[in-house]
């Protein structure tokens, strides 16, 4: 999915805490655009457009177009600061997209299917909600799907077990980090009360 946000460049005297408060009162959110060969650029984003985009999970893993004073720039969202209690956006960091250059993205993980072990009474334990990947912007998926259908009780999947399209790699594996467990099916836990009840029944 593609997104377009209307943005306006901010002059040097329109920056700082006081300016940011004035922008928010005008339903504008301060933001910074950086990366590529250009200098960092301070801009403001329309609050209603940003809030609408944030309602979609795929916004964080999509290339977004910023319409900056009539000039379009492709970016990805890299950081979002929210109000600690209200949850409203306070500031956004955007990184420019350089076509043909591999970039680091964060994408959500969706677990699909029903594990065989669940049908046998097991418990599905998921350890990640998102993946850090390297790929070209045109290869960026909205989400990574992990099929758990074949997992029995005691089975697990690691980073290296995830099937990715050609050209997409997992950052942790690229850096020789731990091949982390992504999902597993655990045996059901039997409580002490249940064991006592069963023993009492057997005794009768």
From TrEMBL:
Pfam families, A to Z: Ribosomal_L25p, Ribosomal_TL5_C
User: Iron-sulfur: is it a keyword of this entry?
Assistant: no
Domain Large ribosomal subunit protein bL25 beta, which positions? 103-188
GO MF term (any one): 5S rRNA binding
Q: Which GO terms describe its biological process?
A: translation
> Matching SUPFAM superfamilies, A to Z?
Ribosomal protein L25-like (SSF50715)
Leader peptide range in chain numbering:
none
InterPro entries, alphabetically? Rbsml_bL25/Gln-tRNA_synth_N, Ribosomal_bL25/Gln-tRNA_synth, Ribosomal_bL25_b-dom, Ribosomal_bL25_C, Ribosomal_bL25_long, Ribosomal_bL25_short, Ribosomal_L25_dom, Ribosomal_uL5_bac-type
Q: Which GO terms describe its cellular component?
A: cytosolic large ribosomal subunit
Domain Large ribosomal subunit protein bL25 L25 positions = 9-94
Coiled-coil zones: none
Alphabetical keyword list: Ribonucleoprotein, Ribosomal protein, RNA-binding, rRNA-binding
User: Do you know which Gene3D superfamilies this protein is assigned to?
Assistant: Ribosomal protein L25, beta domain (2.170.120.20), Ribosomal Protein L25, Chain P (2.40.240.10)
HAMAP family in UniProt: Ribosomal_bL25 (MF_01336), Ribosomal_bL25_CTC (MF_01334)
Record PANTHER family:
RIBOSOMAL PROTEIN L25/GLN-TRNA SYNTHETASE, ANTI-CODON-BINDING DOMAIN-CONTAINING PROTEIN, RIBOSOMAL PROTEIN L25_GLN-TRNA SYNTHETASE, ANTI-CODON-BINDING DOMAIN-CONTAINING PROTEIN
* Family stated for the protein in its record: Belongs to the bacterial ribosomal protein bL25 family. CTC subfamily.
This chain's function reads:
This is one of the proteins that binds to the 5S RNA in the ribosome where it forms part of the central protuberance.
Q: How does it assemble?
A: Part of the 50S ribosomal subunit; part of the 5S rRNA/L5/L18/L25 subcomplex. Contacts the 5S rRNA. Binds to the 5S rRNA independently of L5 and L18.
Q: What is this protein called?
A: Large ribosomal subunit protein bL25
What organism does the UniProt record list as the source?
Answer: Moraxella equi
Quote the gene name from the UniProt entry: rplY
